[in-house]
Amino acid sequence: MKTPVFTTILLGLTLHLSAQEGKVTIQQDPKIDQLVKLYADVNSKSGFYQIQVGFGDYQKAQNLKSQVEIDFPDWYSKIEFESPTYRVRLGRFKTKLEAERKYLEVRKKYPDAMLLKPENESKS
């Protein structure tokens, strides 16, 4: 009886002693943050038409985005902050024709939706 108890205690102490702790330090070039920001800016709006389905405070935007993802599950959607409101945007359409067709489809469900032109498109 003493041997199994002694063996269990000895095994438990051995396992406890073999645990390791460590500290990880990541050294990152500060230019990486600049590149990530530049990448996000370039890919956010340039060259794409989008449909804005609504706006409001953060909670309202989250709820609207969740509903949009249910209604249009295969489309790209995101929330953008433009002071002082959050805006829910849908799609990344390369051509005006494609964007207008999708816009008509979205308007059936969200009558207040707006079609947004790419920022880099010249105004005519």
Folded structure, characterized:
- This protein has about 120 residues and is of the alpha+beta class.
- It contains 4 helices and 4 strands, in the order H-H-E-H-E-E-H-E.
- The chain has helices spanning about 1-15, 30-45, 60-70, 95-110, and strands spanning about 50-55, 75-80, 85-95, 115.
- Strands 2-3-1-4 form a 4-stranded antiparallel beta sheet, with helices on one face.
- The longest helix has 16 residues, at about 1-15.
- It is elongated.
- The mean pLDDT is about 85.
Characteristic key phrases:
124 residues, alpha+beta, 4-stranded antiparallel beta sheet
Give the count of helical stretches.
Answer: 4
Spatial gap, N to C terminus:
93 Å
Radius of gyration: 27 Å
| Beta-strand percentage range | 15-25%
Q: Mind describing the biggest β-sheet?
A: 4 strands, antiparallel
Order of helices and strands: HHEHEEHE
**How are the strands ordered across the major sheet?**
2-3-1-4
Structural category is alpha+beta
Parts with pLDDT < 50 across at least 5 consecutive residues: none
Q: Residue share in helices?
A: 40-55%
Which of globular, elongated, flat, extended, rod-shaped describes the shape? elongated
**Average pLDDT, to the nearest integer?**
84
Number of strands: 4
